[in-house]
Automatic annotation (TrEMBL):
Domain of life: Eukaryota
Pfam family, any one: PBP
Protein name: Phosphatidylethanolamine-binding protein
InterPro entries linked to this entry: PEBP (IPR008914), PEBP-like_sf (IPR036610), PEBP_euk (IPR035810)
Organism annotation: Gibberella intermedia (Bulb rot disease fungus)
Length: 183
């Protein structure tokens, strides 16, 4: 693919997954969407599929997790290394094969530089909630304060959406919330 305008990649990950009490937090990859076309200050989606299909946030009951959304400019020679192609091809709706994503290794392997935009948000699931996520219908509805999904029984409090709303809105996945930061 030889773009006329810069291409970008959006990535969302949970940075606060604790697999067992007392263990250090690890990561969980929620979404990697390459080949976002940037024209006149707005992002447009291309017809190339996500490297990692979107999985909505859904911490276990009684937990609060921290999520980051990063936007990278893709190098002109962008190529997904074979080792990642294999691993991404096996990504499912299970969290088990999304745990432990190493962002540093991925950015080095794909020659991505520092993010051009970034933001974070926090999602809490009340202790009495049960989670039933079906990412086959990833159509979350975002609003300031609460995040729910048609495919989920998650009642999650979103403390800050920022760039995630902006990125998802610019590629047509949700209504624009009006907040973003880039630098």
């Amino acid at each position: 693919m030889s773009p006329k305008a810069p291409m970008h990649m959006a990535l969302m990950m949970d940075i606060s997954v604790v697999l067992k009490p007392g263990a250090s937090p690890t990561t969980l990859i929620h979404w990697i969407r390459p080949y976002l076309l940037s024209e006149n200050g707005s992002l447009k989606s291309t017809n190339i599929a996500a490297l990692v299909p979107y999985m909505p946030p859904g911490p276990p009951p009684g937990q609060t997790h921290n999520y980051v959304v990063l936007l990278f400019e893709q190098p002109l020679n962008f190529k997904v290394p074979d080792s990642y192609k294999t691993s991404f091809a096996n990504i499912t709706t299970s969290i088990n094969n999304r745990i432990g994503f190493n962002l540093t290794d991925f950015t080095e392997a794909t020659e991505l530089k520092k993010p051009v935009a970034a933001n974070w948000f926090r999602v809490s699931t009340p202790a009495q909630s049960s989670i039933a996520v079906n990412p086959a219908t990833p159509s979350p509805t975002f609003s300031q304060g609460t995040s729910t999904s048609n495919a989920s029984q998650v009642s999650a409090v979103v403390h800050r959406m920022g760039l995630v709303v902006w990125v998802l809105a610019t590629i047509g996945l949700c209504d624009y919330g009006g907040m973003f930061w880039s630098g």
